[in-house]
Automatic annotation (TrEMBL):
The gene is mutL. GO terms for cellular component: mismatch repair complex. GO terms for biological process: mismatch repair. Transmembrane segments: none annotated. The chain holds residues 16 to 337 of 602 of the full protein. This is DNA mismatch repair protein MutL. The lineage of its organism: Bacteria, Pseudomonadati, Pseudomonadota, Gammaproteobacteria, Immundisolibacterales. Coiled coil: none annotated. The keyword DNA repair applies. This protein is involved in the repair of mismatches in DNA. It is required for dam-dependent methyl-directed DNA mismatch repair. May act as a 'molecular matchmaker', a protein that promotes the formation of a stable complex between two or more DNA-binding proteins in an ATP-dependent manner without itself being part of a final effector complex.
Amino acid sequence: AQLANQIAAGEVVERPASIVKELLENALDAGARRIEVTLEQGGVGLIRVRDDGGGIPAEELPLALRRHATSKLASSGELMRIRTLGFRGEALPSIASVARLDLASAPAGAPAAQLLHGQSEPSPAAHPPGTTVTVRDLFYNLPARRKFLRAEKTEFQHADELLRRLALARFDVGLAWSHNGKPVQQLQPALDLPAREQRLARLCGQAFVDAALRLDFPAGELRLSGWAALPTFSRAAADLQHWYVNGRLVRDKLLTHAARQAYQDVLYHGRQPAYVLYLDLPAELVDVNVHPAKAEVRFRDSRAVHDLVRRGLREVIASGSR
Ligand code: ADP
Ligand code: MG
């Protein structure tokens, strides 16, 4: 089982940032309103994610570390319409096979919290309602993989970039993170548009917000929304092309392609378009079970999705650039 978990970990856990992503997804799936992430040594030394979500019932705690034990799918039919970020039951066992993992959790209304320390039996602990997952010494048992990790600063940058992207997936959730004892970001839940644009400015820069057009483009069961910078916006920083499908941060060639075409349609000659875009559609129209890291998606009707993105985006930038 240990070996199987380590093999699965090879696909899920590439570096500290991948662990941060899985733990954040779990916190969001648990309905957290506030999430706090503590990183040390770029996340190689320590990653701690604390949430105020629904918690894990004591009797389910040991299950959380068992492979393919997920509380999120009741039937294989549900695999066709996934609404949670996780569903494979692979993240925690994979992480536990390549690092030292502690799990402390208190479901609302439970008499006491439970702590699971490595493979031992759960023991009572003090913990407010919610869950804290602590991951230490990444790849302590796999020196060959540990060697592939970059400098602490680089690993932190990857984790920080990921947290910034995830913070744009759920404006309604408060998210704070720190590195080596220093606060990096403290984002309050952003409920109205001004608050959301404030968060956007913190994470993508005020210049982007100033240059961005807000779009909200419903088309039948599909909806495209978010912010797209005018073609005149030119930016020196690294890529600012964020896609979220049903609240899930994705990397998708079809979406990126459609967006690039929209910009080309309005005679955009800049370097790289910049946007933060959200596509929402019924869960059964998109397959997220393509890769263990769940960053890729497949659309039932990719033509319709491509058309909507190209048309919706083109309309907005064309009207704004006049
Ligand atoms: P998955 O997310 O695919 O179900 P994971 O390995 O990421 O699998 O997590 C295993 C299980 O542990 C989840 O199905 C969930 O029941 C529980 N769990 C993990 N993290 C949390 C959390 N932060 N709050 C509540 N439950 C959690
Ligand atoms: Mg998960």
